[in-house]
């Protein structure tokens, strides 16, 4: 399977779409797996059945990290183009336009929003090959996670926080890496434990999360990133964790619920919007 896969909240965010290379893997492995694990528990039985051939005996949690793992693979797509799928950047304190175009092929994707919509389009298209759908599902699972990490809608001039040095209990790291993994790993939980602890069946909360679009997820992330930037905290210890872990847990929880809602909306026509399926605005629906 892996070898086969190789051969607008504020719709006026002003996107500079200045895309810069980054080596960061959003949320790290645990963060992506937490989101996917939560999503698995909110999938309808119809969606689970339809996902089986696309997952090829793997779980959502297993495939959630695949796009990061493949970034060391040979080939122009993985070496020169795939990194653009993972983020969108802006200038400091400037609103970004998250207008998206429906790209016709994976080579032309220039940012995370286009990557999400391209993946949705492939999964909706009955003419898409099995390999293309497997590729797109893996990327979609990953990109929904990325879109909930604040610094994947951060600033271009510091590479989404990668160039901002901070100390985490005296050890040097950077702001992006801190939010990718270090704060999550500091909880000393496996991804399954973490997912179980923050998962929710609160229908009011679920409905709130499902009243959203990929654009609004990135708006939320950008707003959070700007708030964190403006605090300019560089010495990270217990007080920082106390102030920010609730944000991280909420973003992971939202990512999981929304991933399930998006997959249910794609694969189960009977799934009820705002109950088990995402309710996307008409202007953001992807059409073939």
Automatic annotation (TrEMBL):
Keyword DNA-binding among UniProt keywords: no
Protein's name in the database: S1/P1 Nuclease
GO function terms (MF aspect): endonuclease activity; hydrolase activity, acting on ester bonds; metal ion binding; nucleic acid binding
Keyword Metal-binding in record: yes
InterPro entries associated with the record: PLipase_C/P1_nuclease_dom_sf (IPR008947), S1/P1nuclease (IPR003154)
Database matches in PANTHER family: ENDONUCLEASE 4
One Pfam match: S1-P1_nuclease
Protein species of origin: Pseudoalteromonas nigrifaciens
Lineage: Bacteria, Pseudomonadati, Pseudomonadota, Gammaproteobacteria, Alteromonadales
């Amino acid at each position: 399977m892996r070898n086969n896969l190789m051969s607008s909240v504020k719709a006026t965010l002003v996107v500079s779409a200045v895309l810069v290379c980054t080596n960061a893997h959003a949320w790290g492995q645990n963060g992506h797996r937490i989101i996917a694990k939560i999503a698995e528990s909110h999938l309808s039985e119809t969606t689970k059945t339809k996902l089986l051939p696309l997952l090829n005996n793997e779980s959502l949690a297993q495939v959630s990290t695949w796009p990061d793992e493949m970034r060391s693979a040979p080939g122009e797509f993985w070496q020169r183009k795939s990194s653009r799928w993972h983020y969108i950047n802006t200038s400091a304190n400037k609103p970004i336009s998250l207008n998206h175009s429906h790209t016709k092929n994976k080579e032309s994707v220039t940012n995370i929003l286009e990557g999400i919509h391209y993946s949705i389009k492939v999964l909706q298209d009955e003419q898409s090959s099995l390999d293309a759908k497997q590729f797109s599902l893996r990327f979609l699972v990953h990109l929904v996670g990325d879109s909930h990490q604040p610094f994947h809608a951060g600033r271009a001039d510091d590479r989404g926080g990668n160039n901002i040095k901070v100390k985490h209990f005296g050890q040097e790291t950077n702001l992006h890496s801190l939010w990718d993994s270090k704060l999550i790993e500091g909880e000393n939980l496996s991804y399954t434990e973490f997912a179980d602890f923050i998962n929710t069946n609160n229908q009011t909360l679920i409905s709130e999360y499902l009243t959203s679009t990929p654009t609004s997820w990135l708006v939320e992330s950008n707003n959070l990133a700007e708030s964190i930037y403006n605090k300019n905290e560089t010495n990270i210890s217990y007080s920082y964790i106390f102030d920010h872990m609730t944000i991280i847990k909420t973003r992971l929880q939202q990512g999981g619920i929304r991933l399930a809602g998006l997959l249910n909306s794609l694969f189960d026509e009977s799934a009820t919007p705002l109950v088990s399926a995402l309710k996307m605005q008409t202007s953001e629906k992807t059409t073939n």
